[in-house]
DNA sequence: TTAGAGTTGATTTT
DNA sequence: AAAATCAACTCTAA
């Protein structure tokens, strides 16, 4: 979804008289049951931006709706293409899809290029370096394997022009009317052009709703460079200590704090009135950065390929090796470390069969999770009765985004911490609703949080009351996403059931009426979960892990 | 076999 | 704010 560092585009343009940039809108990724509105909107915005960026280079984007395994071969035939170029994709669905396309292209005697640039390294090269071709499940081992491949490949130079989309000669295959190109594909294509959300069966979104950053390469690169321009932020970045409740707190700081009583100004409104506001003397940031959460929020751009991981890596590297030399955080916690975590999970996902499942997954602990629908729905809908958990789930539903540590908190709560529900159920909800949902990262992190792989200290449980409170004493984050708790005194905002009834009435939030009772007693529930984990781990040690099965049956999203 | 490390715990003590 | 304590997991390297 970009024109920078795009080796497939470069390969397509080399010695070509005419290049047709195509994006196929696969109905598989467009179903409201499986894909949340925020991610689809981000995709559509990214397509619009890609089209504009191609236009600036003398070309344009052709968007075809349909099954890629039918549309692409039909297009190759109709347009008499001699070469097909696309980015390598290592997800199971993509591998199946691309193999089918590749075989048909072979039959048509078409030259195919499928270079790797979505990850820092070509995953096949990384996997070849792994003992027994099995990816390590420890980050430190991964770092050694990665460094054995030498430095990360440099980004592909950006092309200044792209050979014409339409042949000037009046070829019957390259009509001047692009839409007729699609009509030639017949029944394969169900439409063309960039659709609206409504056309895809989604409700339209107000601009103030959803993930606050707009999709696209242009905005992604701007955001990347704005991030790297904040030198102190980059130098000191340590992921585990970033604040999951921070949404506009930097802005709040700029206005002298809001939680210490007095008249509370809406920081967003205030900033609009004071466009000259700066957080730090040398910090020339826009409103967008002032509104930024504690992490970079670049993940959706990485997921869609709006921003190249290699571009991110090398621009970061230049900064770390020059201006910030010797005075910056380091992997695994640093910003560079985050890019390497992504790479780590991509390698694990690529090298592990059934990476998105417990059963048949070589690296995943077998644990007797339940598919308790009632518990799952309460969690999914943010009705657990724990404000910190519920606020996070409401943020997910509304915006399609949560801070990494909020994801930890809700994932731990659903699985090994409190509810003992199958991690696959939680992963499916994240996969549907997150703007940055990513097969490798999502499933990998769910295994991590559920102590199924990568992380095994199951006795370390996040507190559904204590964890959020650590950063946000006043509960501003909770109040934002759970307005019914807006007037609850800070003392009770994380555990409203402890408030005396007259306090609840005064706050306009009576537990059991306006907000649910906590669905479990955390102390009891977590103790029971730890015991279950201990017993499953014991069975694993004794070689009896395979006898363990989940309880109940897998849910189908959308039902 | 064993010591030490492991991006992101909670709580109490210093 | 940092360290100790709680209990005790796996993986890696020696």
Topology, please?
Elements: H1 7-13, E1 22-25, H2 37-55, E2 62-66, H3 68-78, E3 83-85, H4 92-107, E4 111-113, H5 123-128, H6 139-147, H7 178-183, E5 189-192, H8 217-228, H9 231-236, H10 249-254, H11 267-273, H12 287-290, H13 299-303, H14 309-321, H15 335-350, H16 373-380, H17 387-399, H18 404-417, H19 423-433, H20 439-449, H21 466-469, H22 476-481, H23 501-507, H24 522-541
Parallel strand pairs: 1-2, 3-4
Antiparallel strand pairs: 2-5
Helix pairs in contact: 3-4, 15-20, 17-18, 19-20
This protein binds a DNA duplex (14 and 14 nucleotides) through helix 6, helix 15, helix 18 and helix 24.
What are the main properties of this structure?
24 helices, three-stranded mixed sheet, DNA-binding, two-stranded parallel sheet, 559 residues, single chain, mainly alpha, 5 strands
Give structural notes.
The chain is mainly alpha-helical. Helices cover 42% and strands 3% of the residues. β1 (22-25), α2 and β2 (62-66) form a beta-alpha-beta unit. The chain binds a DNA duplex (14 and 14 nucleotides) through α6, α15, α18 and α24.
Strand coverage percent: under 5%
Shape: globular
Category from helices, strands and their pairing: mainly alpha
Helix proportion range: 40-55%
Summarize the structure.
The chain is mainly alpha-helical.
């Amino acid at each position: 979804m970009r024109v920078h560092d795009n080796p497939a585009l470069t390969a397509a343009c080399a010695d070509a008289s005419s290049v047709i940039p195509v994006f196929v809108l696969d109905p598989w990724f467009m179903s409201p049951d499986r894909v949340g509105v925020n991610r689809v909107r981000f995709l559509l915005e990214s397509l619009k931006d890609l089209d504009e960026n191609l236009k600036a280079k003398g070309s344009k984007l052709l968007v075809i709706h349909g099954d890629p395994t039918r549309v692409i071969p039909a297009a190759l035939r109709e347009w008499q293409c001699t070469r097909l170029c696309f980015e390598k994709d290592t997800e199971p669905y993509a591998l199946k899809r691309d193999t089918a396309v590749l075989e048909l292209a072979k039959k048509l005697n078409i030259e195919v290029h499928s270079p790797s640039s979505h990850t820092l390294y070509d995953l096949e090269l990384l996997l070849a370096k792994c003992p027994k071709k099995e990816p390590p499940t420890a980050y430190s081992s991964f770092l050694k394997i990665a460094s054995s491949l030498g430095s990360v490949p440099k980004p592909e130079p950006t092309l200044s022009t792209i050979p014409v989309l339409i042949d000037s000669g009046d070829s019957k295959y390259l009509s001047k009317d692009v839409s007729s190109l699609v009509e030639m594909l017949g029944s394969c294509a169900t439409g063309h052009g960039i659709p609206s959300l409504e056309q895809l069966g989604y409700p339209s979104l107000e601009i103030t709703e959803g993930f606050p950053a707009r999709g696209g390469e242009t905005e992604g690169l701007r955001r990347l460079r704005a991030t790297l321009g904040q030198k102190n932020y980059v130098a000191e970045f340590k992921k585990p200590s970033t604040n999951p409740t921070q949404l506009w707190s930097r802005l709040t700081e700029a206005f002298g704090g809001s939680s210490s009583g007095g008249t509370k100004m809406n920081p967003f409104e205030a900033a609009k009135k004071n466009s000259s506001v700066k957080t730090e003397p040398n910090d020339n940031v826009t409103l967008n950065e002032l509104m930024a959460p504690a992490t970079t929020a670049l993940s959706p751009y990485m997921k869609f390929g709006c921003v190249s991981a290699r571009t991110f890596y090398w621009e970061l590297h230049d900064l770390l090796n020059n201006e910030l030399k010797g005075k910056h955080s380091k992997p695994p916690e640093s910003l560079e470390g985050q890019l390497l975590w992504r790479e780590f999970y991509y390698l694990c996902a690529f090298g592990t069969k059934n990476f998105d499942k417990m059963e048949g997954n070589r690296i995943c602990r077998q644990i007797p999770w339940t598919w308790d629908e009632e518990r799952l729905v309460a969690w999914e809908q943010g009705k657990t009765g724990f404000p910190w958990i519920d606020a996070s789930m409401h943020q997910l539903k509304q915006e399609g985004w949560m801070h990494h540590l909020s994801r930890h908190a809700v994932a731990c709560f659903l699985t090994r911490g409190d509810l003992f529900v199958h991690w696959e159920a939680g992963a499916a909800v994240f996969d549907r609703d997150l703007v940055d949902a990513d097969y490798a990262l999502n499933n990998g992190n769910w295994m991590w949080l559920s102590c199924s792989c990568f992380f095994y200290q199951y006795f370390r449980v996040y507190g559904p009351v204590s964890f959020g409170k650590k950063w946000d004493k006043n509960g501003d984050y909770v109040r934002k996403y759970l307005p019914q708790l807006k007037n609850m005194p800070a003392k009770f905002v994380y555990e409203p059931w402890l408030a005396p009834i007259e306090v609840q009435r005064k706050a306009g939030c009576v537990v059991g009426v306006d907000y649910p009772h906590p669905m479990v007693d955390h102390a009891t529930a977590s103790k029971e979960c730890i015991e279950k984990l201990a017993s499953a781990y014991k069975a694993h040690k004794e070689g009896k892990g395979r006898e363990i099965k989940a309880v109940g049956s897998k849910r189908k999203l959308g039902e």
